[in-house]
Design a protein that fits this description.
The structure holds two protein chains of two kinds. Chain A contains 13 helices and 20 strands. Chain A is α/β, with parallel strands linked by helices. In chain A, helix 9 runs antiparallel to helix 10. The longest helix of chain B has 19 residues. Classes of the chains: A alpha/beta, B alpha/beta.
């Protein structure tokens, strides 16, 4: 229900005994919801003179905005890049199952594919609101085929393309319609990338840099043309070099347009990126951090690992990295990724699915909020975003206990071998840390 | 800890002195709590409470919330009337008294929103709003217990020095002392502090069956001295309560710093 008399008559739900993430801090506050939106209870009290119709005790849990996963290739036996008739139902299945991991909005991601696949698959993945049926689809993330050969990772070489000939027309020919597209990852060193980036951003599509051998200058020029995101920082790009930091150097570049904010995703599963690298990136540019799962690790596990690995990053920062920052990247922060008044909320919590690690305890409020029952070691008093100096490393903090647990058997990413092995190949050596 | 007996004498002004702010807040909260419980409020019998804002009553509100959360106190059959509200400040401004009461009290208790009355500083006709407020108090059967504070210039509510001691709810211009005292809530910027407010009158509070004034801190000591050791005077409007049949002043030690030792000893019962 949205607005009007219907919304006003809808029941008011009050979540009590909880901490909520609001204004960058975790506060002991109740969360009020009505008609799918977060409600201002003070306004309800003084203007409508109403109280809650139902109260729910959250048992001291943290209520966080639903996570937004901007790069997810599939899951639960579904691969979005497979050109089948059932892509729509595959997306719906993943949408339903990721709710229990706290993800309430996502961008189904397609890896490098031939044009026939894009033409067939893209129309079957429309933008869709979330709800009890599943997480919302914000639009498709097209990762490739306009990427670097050397850094293609697991992407099939045969289907890589360039847009040197006809710039944006090549893009349209390859993808077909851009109606359902939200993000495009490309390599900015490809010829005429600036025209393409400008054309895409003019259509409201977020351009991300990734699978690239661009140097810092090329990356900066791409940002000046409109790019705002970096796909899985560190993976599938040139490593940081002190004389040419490459794409990684964007985090601290002073050549970016004034007011432009760069976001970056990192695979925070403890395997694709060393925790020390996570920390470096986070400390260099905390406001741009996003966690995402591009591996078999569920989003809530990645959030926990990120929190743990950065050993000093606050719970609030970790949660924001998975909710507020992706919302800001996509320009949705007024409605999603926050618990501010007026933001989207859901109808009620859902239980974690079978096979959930016991203490993950993520109950998703479909729509935009989720409950996180954090493990005891992380449920300390809320901390502000303070310096990390003087914080003692928790023992074994680079491999938190939850990573040693076998991932939930329900999480299988078809094409895992292709993707995981490819990424390891790109870095030239097996990922540190051993077996998942 | 210093406390007087709970036995109530009629027609006296009591001065209750506690060692510190926390104890004073607790004493006041317990008194209000007991008053409400002893009254036995119900469907047709509401307890009416007048309420203040500011930093002084915060401790008292916290304690009342604690008693409510413990299950000892319900506000289901309590009607509240706040003393004042700024004019021209949006209701949801963080410094409005609506916001203060919501964040520090109402959102933590079970009061019916229809029974929580605060003057509307953005009403189209401010005097009509004041008259309507007086009418609501009358319709509620008058105030059983009016809790108030004192300004550094001895004012009660926004009845600034020079206010009539028989005044009713009305629009008032704030005195410079008050604006200066309030500046800390507006980032220290005097230009952001509202200059007018709607306030209950001295006469409105005097009509209450019982009055409790909370005064804590050394900065209020001179005002307390003027209020109870000097005469009834419209320049120190709290002094009007010397003539109220049932008033209690609840203070901490610091607030008594300007009083005569003799006065303090008398009220502490140490002759």
């Amino acid at each position: 229900m949205r607005g009007g008399q219907g919304a006003v008559r809808a029941p008011v739900l009050q979540f009590t005994n909880c901490r909520i993430l609001r204004g960058r801090a975790l506060l002991w506050e109740d969360l009020w919801v009505r008609g799918g939106r977060i409600l201002d209870p003070e306004k309800l009290f003084f203007e409508e003179r109403r109280v809650a119709d139902e109260q729910r005790d959250c048992g001291g849990c943290i209520l966080a905005p639903g996570f937004i996963d901007v790069q997810i290739n599939g899951g639960f036996g579904v691969d979005f890049s497979q050109a089948t008739e059932g892509v729509g139902s595959g997306v719906a299945l993943v949408a339903r199952r990721i709710l229990s991991h706290g993800v309430t909005s996502f961008c189904p991601t397609l890896v490098t594919s031939p044009p026939e696949v894009y033409h067939k698959v893209l129309p079957q993945i429309p933008v869709k609101s979330g709800g009890p049926h599943g997480a919302g689809v914000l639009g498709v993330h097209l990762e490739g085929p306009f990427i670097s050969r050397e850094k293609r990772g697991a992407h099939p070489e045969a289907h890589l393309r360039s847009f040197e000939a006809n710039a944006f027309h090549d893009v349209l020919d390859t993808y077909g319609s851009l109606d359902n597209v939200r993000i495009v990852t490309l390599a900015p060193e490809l010829g005429r990338s600036h025209e393409v980036i400008q054309a895409l951003t003019a259509r409201g599509i977020c351009v991300s840099l990734g699978h690239s051998v661009a140097d810092l200058q090329a990356a900066e020029e791409a940002v000046q043309s409109g790019a705002t995101f970096i796909t899985h920082l560190f993976n599938a790009m040139l490593p940081f070099h002190h004389r040419d930091p490459g794409i990684v150097g964007l985090l601290t570049s002073d050549r970016l347009p004034r007011g432009r904010h760069i976001f970056y995703g990192m695979i925070a599963d403890g395997m694709h990126t060393n925790p020390a690298a996570l920390r470096i990136a986070h400390r260099a540019h905390p406001q741009g951090t996003q966690t995402l799962s591009g591996s078999i690790a569920p989003m809530d596990v990645c959030v926990r690992h990120f929190l743990q690995a950065t050993a000093g990053c606050s719970v609030e920062s970790a949660l924001e990295a998975a909710s507020l920052h992706p919302a800001q990247l996509l320009g949705l922060e007024k409605r999603k990724g926050t618990l501010d008044f007026g933001a989207d909320a859901g109808q009620g919590p859902t239980q974690g699915g079978p096979g959930q690690p016991e203490d993950a305890g993520v109950l998703g409020v479909p729509g935009q909020t989720s409950w996180c029952s954090m493990t005891p070691s992380m449920s300390g008093p809320p901390t502000s975003q303070a310096s990390w100096c003087g914080r003692r490393r928790r023992p074994g903090s680079d491999r938190g206990p939850w990573l040693e647990r076998t991932p939930s058997p329900s999480w299988t990413l078809s094409g895992l071998g292709r993707r995981g092995a490819g990424l390891r190949g790109a870095s030239g050596s097996p990922a540190p840390g051993g077996q998942p | 800890m210093n406390c007087l007996s709970w036995k109530l004498c009629v027609t006296i002004m009591r001065l209750v002195i506690l060692d510190n702010y926390d104890l004073a807040s607790e004493w006041a909260a317990k008194y209000i709590c007991n008053r409400i419980i002893q009254f036995k409020p119900g469907q047709d019998r509401y307890f009416t409470l007048g309420l203040p804002t500011g930093s002084t009553p915060l401790g008292c509100y916290k304690k009342l919330i604690e008693y409510h959360k413990n299950g000892d106190l319900s506000f289901k059959y309590v009607k509240t009337f706040n003393m004042d509200e700024y004019v021209g400040l949006p209701r949801n401004h963080p410094e409005s008294y609506h916001s203060y009461m919501w964040n520090n009290f109402f959102k933590h208790i079970d009061i019916d929103p229809n029974n929580a009355h605060i003057l509307d500083g953005n009403a189209a006709d401010l005097q009509a709003e004041c008259d309507a407020f007086e009418k609501k108090i009358k319709e509620a059967g008058g105030i059983d217990l009016f809790v108030g504070g004192i300004g550094p210039d001895g004012h009660i509510a926004f009845n600034e020095p020079g206010s009539s001691l028989v005044s009713r709810t009305r629009l008032k211009t704030l005195a410079m002392d008050t604006i200066l005292a309030n500046a800390k809530y507006f980032d220290g910027d005097l230009s952001k502090v509202p200059t007018m407010a709607l306030t209950v009158g001295v006469g409105t509070v005097m009509d209450a069956r019982e009055v409790m004034i909370l005064i804590t801190g050394a900065h209020k000591a001179f005002a307390l001295y003027k209020a109870i050791e000097e005469g009834v005077n419209h320049m120190w409007t709290v002094s009007a309560f010397q003539q109220h049949p049932r008033t209690i002043f609840v203070c901490d030690e610091d607030a008594t710093l300007e009083l005569r030792v003799k006065t303090v000893k008398y009220f502490k019962g140490e002759h």
